[in-house]
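INFO  loader      accepted 1 record
INFO  loader      residues=337
INFO  predictor   begin
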Amino acid sequence: MTVVVTGANGHIGANLVRALLVRGRQVRALIHRDREAIEGLDVETVEGDICDLESLCRVFNNADVVYHLAANISLSMYSWSTLEATNVVGTRNVVEACYHCNVQRLVHFSTIHALKQEPLDLPVDESRPLVDSRNCPPYDRSKANGEKEVRRGIEKGLDAVIINPTGIIGPHDYQPSHFGEVLLTLAQGKLPGLVAGGFNWVDVRDVVEGAIRAEEKAVTGARYILSGHWVSLPDLAAVVAEFTGVPAPNFVCPLWLASVGAPLVTAVDYLTGRRPLYTRVSIRALYSNRDVSHEKATRELGYQPRPIRQTILDTLRWFEGVGQLAYPLKTPPARLL
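INFO  predictor   done
INFO  writer      dumping tokens
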């Protein structure tokens, strides 16, 4: 059985490819720009672009399963055209290529951001509608529209399931991801301040395990939220400080003030050549619903997210192992994990 992974060089992709190989699956990775995250692994690599339907058909030829992870992630409010081309049109091409190549199952990775968060006093579950307002961040709308493309494919007879993970943390974060960069910056003592909000964080390895179980067990058209634990940024910073010995920032900015100052901070980051982390979009995410339910995935797939402290420790250990942390981490007693 041949399994194709788009976005194999990304954070989830790097972990997914490894998990599939452990299971003895034959993996074909679609490579667009680089392959650092899967270098040296026993996988077939084929160059392609999800924005090019013809190249996708070549990559998907004789494939049994496709995991579609490739996407453009943006924390900007001004990136719709780029996001639409990759996350909407690209997903449409993936669906068409799966249909054309008789792929037996598509596992599409969406995001919790594609689902409406309101009302905030009720849990977010799989029954929530997709976001549709132009006031929503472009990334959120693009992923919601990408899901609609998958649904159209299902209506035509495609066997597909949809995965909606929350904020992902974990090892094999080569680029690194936005939050991986936050962890690194905290561990290096370079983050000047924190924001008072928080988010639902989940281990990338748990997301991968849940997705594979969905591929193997889910009925056509099923959606699964793969969430973890809601934790505030100050509490996460305290855990990083405990493991590294580097003090957490003393300044914690209220959310309302962070919202006001985000455009200025973003502008300064762009001017200094840094990737913006505190933007209007990321601050908005910290306002999101605290209660994100994975009850359906637990009931139907046996999904169980691990403790967030273990995830943070394993992520920092991975960064240490690849030379991005220059001092040894402290090893906490097992009872504290």
